[in-house]
Amino acid sequence: MTAVILKLVIDEGVFAAVSDSLLVFEKTPVEFNTLSIRSYSNEHQLEGIKEQVAGYLGKVQIEIRTTQEAYKDILSFLKAHHPKLESDYWVVPVLDSGKL
Fold first, then answer.
1. Cα separation of 50 and 39, whole Å?
2. Fewer Cβ atoms within 10 Å of its own Cβ: the N or the C terminal residue of the chain?
3. DSSP character for 69?
């Protein structure tokens, strides 16, 4: 099994629901890290007053270390449980890992 990192970028407003879903995913254990990020672009409409004033959208990046076989199951699970979820994602191969 080849290890990969599945990176999801979602809106802050749906983070609690998505993270709760990941914690109850039964097919394989899911451990993840999160990172708050600011998303900048001139291609989208800033909808809320906070975004219009700040000039960015608040996002959360979720990083899941999984396998090449399992990441598709995770994406399918999220699509089924959050059909209106808008998320960018990347699948990045893990070339090496360990502990120092």
1. 13
2. C
3. T
If phi over 0 gives left and psi between -120 and 50 gives alpha, with beta otherwise, what is residue 54?
Answer: alpha
Residue 92, φ and ψ in degrees, nearest 5: -115, 125
> Position of tokens 């995913």?
25
Q: Edge to edge, what strands does the sheet with 57-67 contain? A: 32-39, 57-67, 3-11, 88-93
pTM reported for the whole predicted model: 0.79
Q: Could you tell me the pLDDT band of residue 98, with boundaries at 50, 70 and 90?
A: confident
Cα distances (angstroms) measured from residue 54 to each of 11, 40, 44, 49, 82: 15, 10, 14, 8, 28
CA gap 53, 47 in Å, rounded: 10
